[in-house]
Every structure is written in C-alpha cells, then in structure tokens.
User: Fold this.
Amino acid sequence: MVKKSYDVIIVGAGLGGLKLAELLNNSKLNVLLIEKRSTIKTLTKNYFGTFLEYIQRWKLQKYLIYKCGWGFYTTRSQTFKKLKGKSLCVLEMNKWTRSLKLKCDKKTNIQIVKLKREKEQITLYDQKNHKYTAKLVVDCSGIAQTISTLLGIKKSKCDFLNYVFIMKNHKSKNRNEMFYFQDSNLTNCGGWFHTLENGKCLVGCAEFTGPNTLGKKELRKRLISYVKNFYPLNKYLKNAKIIEEFCMAGPTTTMHSSIVEDNYIAVGDAAGAGGPFIGDGFRMTFAMADSAYDTIKEVFKLNDFSKRALQIYSKKFNDEFGKWYKWSYLWRFMYLRYTTNKELNLFTEKLKKFNDQDYYDILVSKLTPKILIKLFTAKSFFLLIKNMFIFHILEPLKISKLPRRPIVLKK
Ligand SMILES: Cc1cc2nc3c(=O)[nH]c(=O)nc-3n(C[C@H](O)[C@H](O)[C@H](O)COP(=O)(O)OP(=O)(O)OC[C@H]3O[C@@H](n4cnc5c(N)ncnc54)[C@H](O)[C@@H]3O)c2cc1C
Assistant:
C-alpha cells in the first residue's frame, strides 16, 4: 500500500490546481498534485476569454490569440464596445500548461474516492486504496467538487450547461471578434461567438440551470438554430462545417457555504467561484490560486491549519469579488424570472449608451446599484412591474402567462 505524507495536496490539475502548483515552486513545502485524467499537459478545455488587466496581472501575453472588444447582439439590435484598455483577450491555455515546470510530486490517473479526517491532518484514498496524507488539502477538482463532497460541505451548484461547436470555413470579416448573443426564446443565458487561430471559430450557447433547464440534445438544437438564424452568425457560418463539438457543465457561480475548513481550502469551480452574470471563472480561479498561495505561506509559518487561521483566504476572495456578487445575483434573478425578448432588446439599446467602463463593469459582474439604476429606463421599469404582476398574480390565477422560452424547440 502506497502511503506518503505531504505538507500540501492539490486535488485536480485544471487552471486552479496548476496555477497553485506553479506558485508553490517558490516554497520549500512538500507538495503533491493529483489528477484523475492521464495527463497534466493539457486542460479539459483549451480556449478562454478573459480581460486584459488579468492577462497583465498574470503575465499571460504569450498565450494570447487576439484582443478585442465585446459585442452584445439580439435578433433586433446590436452593440459593440471597444473596451479600450480593458480588451477581452482570447487565450490558448494548453500552451501555458505545456510550458509549466512543476517541482512538486505529480500523480495522474488517480481519483480520490475516500477521505479520513485525522487529528491535524487529512488522509485521502484513491481508487486503489492508496493513502496520501497532508496537513492541508486544496480542492481544485472543478465542478466535481470532490473534497467538499467527501467532507460533507454544502456545495455550490453547477449552474451552466454549455454546448459548443468548433467550426471551420467561417466568413467572419473581422478575425478579432467575440460577441455574446441572446434570444430568450432559445436559451435563458445566451451564446457566444469568437474566431480562433488557424481559421477556426468557436460558437457556443449556454443555459443557466434551473427547474426547466434544457437537456443536452435540446441545447444542441438551439445552437443550430442560433447558427442558422441569428444575424450575423447566419452570415458568417453559412458554409462552415462543425469539426468538433462538446457539451460541458460549468462553471459554478454560487459560493460554497464555506470555502475553508480545518486543513481544507477550495479553489476555483470547486469553490463555486465563477461570476454570476457570464460565469467567467478564469480570473477568479487564478486570483483564488494566488490567495491560496499567500494563505499557505502564512499558515505554515504559524503551523496552524485550523479553519480560523484559514479564514484570511475567504476574506481575500470576498474583498476582491464577493462584494459585487449580490447585485449581480439580483440582476440575474430578475432577468431569468421577468425578462422577455422585448425587454431584452430594450436592454441592448440601453447598453449602446453606456460608456466602456460601465459596460466592462457589467461584464465582470460588478453590478453596483448605480449601474442597476442606469439599466432601467422608465419604460423598462414599467415593463418589469407589469411582468411581476403577471408572474405573481395573473399566472397563478390562470388569466395570463408571461411569454417564456419553449422547452422543446418548434420545427
Ligand atoms: C464550455 C465552457 C466555456 C468556458 N469559457 C470560459 C471563458 O471563456 N472564460 C472564463 O473565464 N471561464 C470560462 N469557463 C469557466 C472555466 O473553464 C472554469 O471556471 C475554470 O476552468 C475553473 O478552473 P478549475 O481549476 O476550478 O477547474 P477545472 O479547470 O475544471 O479543473 C478541474 C480538474 O480537476 C480534475 N478532477 C476532477 N475530479 C477529480 C478527482 N476526484 N481527483 C483528481 N482530479 C480530479 C479534473 O480532471 C480537472 O483537470 C468556461 C467553462 C466551460 C465549461
């Protein structure tokens, strides 16, 4: 039976696990990185969009495919902002993973299936019943949330389902292009399009998961409908061919009840760290890996791995991101419940008048009350009240119904 003791065990070699392992190259700690896949040289997903300030913060310029603004399109309206100085950057992250030179012990094809909490340490068991013990276990297992599940922590739910096509032969006139498109008859979240290297492009759509979430098959049908009918996709993708397609869950966008416990920290999707509005988990995952590293240095100096000592980690995350989340959730809640296509078109009209900074703040889920007020015209406010009245009063009485996205796409 393999048994080894470590200072830190990182479970999961995705964005968060690899970033933390890279940072821990600078420490003298005895670290183990565990991954259930057969390799740590690639990620489950290669392309990520994130904003320029985060590329600069983590010196990721080498992996950048292109920089662009961000457009928001509906069937009737469109707006495109240049986001000067805050451009959206599309990165090829498998280049980054291949460039890493990690000093820690690495184990692939290992799946953690059992956990035992012992005095001042945690012991993990893999599928072959091998034991790995650590003073601190960092859950970087993404939406699997393996360690929190084994610890019985109330988990955040995974609240996106994505369907993605990689296509070739597209006719996008502008290579540096990324936009988000929306038609609430199709999905309750929307979709996105961007060009990739070697003349490929990526087109995807996503659902916020909820009681009436579309399944995988239906979501694929919606994506085909976007591709065929949605301007300008129908123009760009007229003769394009699907060369790859995948359906994925994620990211998680509601925080765990706790992201620290005795001898335990959660990072990235394993902590429910995505942004509530567009779910951009990349910057949160990297920021959490940074905070986890700072926290690890601190607690090893103190030789204290209790929940109380680890609280500095939650505070760091909350200071940088958490305080914006409540307004973003309020917006998402209202948007999912009461918005129809009509209001959505009004919303896009409104976005045209926003300056780059406000537009950027919306994209990064910094929905302050000031921005929420700006989003509402007198007309959209009236429509919201009307929709609330229909939803809460007329619908239960079966007098009228809000026009909702159909669960099965009509032919
Ligand atoms: C289709 C799609 C598009 C996205 N696009 C973007 C985007 O453009 N920009 C952006 O910012 N974010 C995007 N996201 C979100 C982003 O991918 C995640 O937020 C981010 O990858 C989270 O990183 P992570 O390290 O927490 O988890 P992951 O990167 O998912 O890594 C988790 C790792 O843990 C491993 N693992 C799981 N269980 C175990 C176990 N029991 N034992 C050992 N290992 C285990 C997995 O194999 C995996 O390697 C997207 C997500 C999806 C699904």
